[in-house]
Automatic annotation (TrEMBL):
Alphabetically ordered keywords of this record: Cell membrane, Membrane, Transmembrane, Transmembrane helix
Protein name: ABC transporter permease
Tree of life domain: Bacteria
Transmembrane segments: 21-39, 309-327, 348-373, 379-401
Keyword Transmembrane helix found: yes
Primary location class: membrane
One Pfam family per UniProt: FtsX
Location of this chain's protein in the cell: Cell membrane
Endpoints of the signal sequence: none
GO CC terms in record: plasma membrane
Length: 414
């Protein structure tokens, strides 16, 4: 009854103290949760950077000055396209091609419609419109696909092609019974003395240009090259890294088969290749944007990680001090309670219950604030630590205040 009477009177007389402690609890809970949520957001930003920022690898000559007309050998091309990968005579568990996506590959032959070959009359096989600068959006050339066709033809095995608006009318005059363009092709624009073959292609669309270049799926040109030359030879090759988390691992694999770009043209000997003494091509990994973004985010995160334990310790100390002084300034009340016969353990229980009630209300207010601002859950570990710290401070003050008899306490307070 004495405890109940005391609590009832206490709520009426010390309302401002109670409200202050409740608001302090709400602030401390909300602050640390919001701070931790800010760290989580930065970590998510890093994951988003890995997922969103594209990293491309581009094959070039050894000096890095040329990325087209490279005469890329078929074994290099096979690394990017095959689902199997062997190195050092052993089949590797993970294919080289599994590290990349959106492979932009280009290969070319020369065509004629009976009027002779010319270096301007190229039949270029591509895996994507991005592989041809003439078809890229930055070129300003618009592409018009005929009904039933789109840019997916370049990833297929269809015998279809894209021609310039200037060459479309001339090419359509020499077709077979199915309306397909008949072209005679060979590996170089040499006039005579070279093997040639014919290919039939359906016109799938046009691009606005005066060029005489014809674009078709890479598979079509690859088949022609294999027939004429016994192997595939690429002009340019680039790809996008599939998973940027694997970039460091993929970079090591790239160094097995490509040299680093060196403007001086210096070549280092290969120790593990029985066929090649030097690497034939260099590779450039364009990860500048990703690295700059990750470095900036990582610097921010490291600062936040260092601040987190400091804030946690500060909140625990504030909670301990708040609990201690909340009870310490009420020594006279405890002296009266003790003089009325209240046992020491009862005062401790009374303090514990009071702190619990205030903490529940404060934590609830803090949670509402957190959900309103950030829509995330309260940091329960920190809340538990704060609850424990406040009780330690309050109970310590209570034990110090009730260590003597009630009469002696009243005399000391008075």
């Amino acid at each position: 009854m004495i405890v109940f009477f005391y609590e009832k009177v206490r709520l009426k007389r010390g309302a401002w103290q109670t409200v202050s402690i409740v608001l302090l609890i709400a602030f401390l809970c909300a602050f640390f949760t919001l701070f931790d949520g800010f760290i989580c957001q930065k970590e998510q930003d890093m994951e988003s950077a890995y997922a969103v920022i594209p990293v491309t690898v581009v094959v070039s000559n050894l000096t890095g000055t040329k990325t087209d007309d490279l005469k890329i050998t078929d074994y290099i091309i096979n690394y990017f396209l095959s689902d199997k990968y062997a190195y050092g005579g052993e089949l590797q568990e993970k294919a080289f091609s599994s590290y990349v996506k959106d492979v932009c590959l280009k290969a070319s032959v020369y065509y004629s419609q009976g009027t002779g070959f010319s270096s301007r009359q190229k039949l270029i096989g591509i895996t994507s419109v991005d592989a041809a600068s003439e078809l890229a959006p930055v070129s300003g050339n618009s592409i018009t696909y005929f009904e039933g066709y789109d840019e997916s033809i370049f990833t297929s095995n269809k015998a279809a092609c894209l021609v310039s608006t200037a060459a479309a009318e001339e090419l359509s005059q020499d077709t077979d019974n199915n309306g397909n363009v008949i072209l005679t092709v060979q590996m170089s624009p040499a006039a005579t003395g070279e093997a040639a073959t014919q290919i039939s292609l359906e016109i799938a669309g046009t691009y606005s240009s005066e060029s005489q270049t014809i674009y078709c799926p890479f598979s079509c040109v690859a088949a022609v090259q294999t027939e004429l030359d016994g192997k595939i030879t690429g002009d340019s090759l680039s790809a996008t890294v599939r998973d940027n988390h694997e970039l460091d691992e993929f970079r090591k694999i790239l160094m097995r088969h490509f040299a680093n770009v060196d403007p001086s043209g210096h070549q280092e000997e290969i120790n593990n290749s029985p066929a090649l003494r030097y690497q034939q091509f260099a590779i450039t990994v364009h990860d500048e944007t990703l690295r700059e973004t990750l470095n900036a985010l990582n610097r921010n995160l490291q600062t936040l990680y260092r601040l987190k334990p400091i804030f946690a310790c500060t909140e625990v100390m504030i909670g301990t001090a708040a609990g201690f002084f909340y009870i310490h300034i009420r020594r006279r009340e405890f002296a009266i309670a003790r003089s009325l016969g209240t046992k020491r353990i009862e005062t401790v229980i009374m303090v514990f219950v009071e702190i619990c009630l205030m903490f529940l209300v404060g934590a609830a207010i803090g949670t509402i604030l957190i959900l309103f601002v950030q829509e995330t859950a309260t940091q329960y570990v920190m809340a538990a630590a704060l609850f424990f710290a406040m009780n330690v401070g309050a109970i310590t003050a209570c034990l110090m205040a009730t260590g003597k008899s009630g009469i002696r306490l009243l005399r000391e307070v008075e």
